[in-house]
Predict the structure of Trehalose-6-phosphate synthase.
Amino acid sequence: MPAGEHEFVVVANRLPVDITIEDDGSLSWERSPGGLVTALAPLMQKNGGGWVGWSGKVGFEHEPFDAEGMRLCPVPLSEGEIARYYEGFSNATLWPLYHDVIVPPEFHRAWWNTYTSVNRRFATAAAEAVAPGGTVWVHDYQLQLVPSVLRMLRPDVKIGFFNHIPFPPVEIFTQLPWRHQVVEGLLGADLVGFQRPGDASNFLRAVRRLTDLQVRGPQVTVPGRWSRPDRAVRAQAFPISIDSTAFEELARRPDVLERAKQIRVELGSPDVLLLGVDRLDYTKGIRHRLKAFGELLEDGQLRVPEACMVQVASPSRERVEQYKTLRDEVEVTVGRINGDYGALGRAAVHYLHHSYPATEMAALYRAADVMLVTSLRDGMNLVAKEYVAARSDLGGALVLSEFTGAADELTHALTINPHDIDGTKATVMRAVNMDRKESRRRMRGLRRRVMQHDVQRWADDFLGYLAMSVPPPPDLRPPETPRLGTQPPATDENRPDPTDEQPTDEQPTDEQPTSKETT
Ligand code: G6P
């Protein structure tokens, strides 16, 4: 396969811009919000980087084009592919499977087949874009087969993969009928990054259980094919973050501070403003949060209008059945709470099913007394980090689910088990009544972590490790085109399971030749 021109290529399900097709057929675009593009943009701009991804539009086909200082390579998806690859296999199979089966995952062979063919398309686009000996960074659960296909097409390049969501325990992962192929897909990378050490351990346990490859500490040895040398694949945690300084600066802007004051006035100047900000997703524990808040009103521990809650629930994956059901349930619950405890012009819960610009979010964070993050399972939860970055005034309190990746780092938050409604209520009241000295001390501790470990540091850490991996010589090419899922590995039954003797629940800790602190 002929090499491309980009030293550095990112492959993600979505392009980092929102594209509009104007009436005359021309394109315009706006950079999408989100940390990934912010962290990678300087590197992309410096090295003439490429970004392979879906535009978010049905059937959008376009030649690669330059935007935001990088080359964007749109991958087209048809209506059927969106239904089977994106809504189906990615978001109704993998998403629930990787989030503790909060809702039952669906397993459909037609979805899997489309997932493999779409992954192949992304891998081919990356192979065409990357320069000889270049680096490709593949992102997230939608594209887990890309590393192995890309490795076959372009054995000369370094391949990193980062999973933005949890990686499930092997007992859950093995429900997946295509578990072997997914593990093999990921092992095409040189470095497989996860949010938490526990995710990396889960992945390594799955490798032990499902393959007969040698696993030592964080490293898997994959035997070389076609006379290529053996490869080492490393699995490790790299907790993602936000552009902390930019967010802090935004939240300090006079117009944002003015808007924060205005929000409180518009809400009737409550004594206590509770805030939830999420994609409308069943992993976020929005129903649990509403239940706890509803009971606090019922008990009389909180009263309207002295207290109220704002819940921003941004629309997400609206054609997936479980998301439709969740929306109905949340909206019925909000209606019930407001019916029971609201008054004319004074809602108990202000529910907003919209996405807002970063300025409005920053103002909400500055306005809120207590931020509620109640996820039942969450890879990281960047909302918690945004709240902390916004609170340079050291005001506010963060109630944080222990089932978020962020809880590993944000140890000064008030942690909760969102399934424990009584415990959650007690912690919310503790946050509401916390004295200023303690809340300032906690916020200072939270800010120390978030301001130092920003998304730039995350990207530098990951790419630093990836740079240390040694690719095979560039002149070797595979003798055949990749065929995913056609080599069934040995079954679980005929293979011993070494994990039973050596469970690994800790972050692998071997020494690395780097001066950077690992996150
Ligand atoms: C999570 C995933 C991302 C995804 C985002 C929004 O954060 O890890 O990969 O892009 O949700 O979901 P959507 O389905 O709208 O891309």
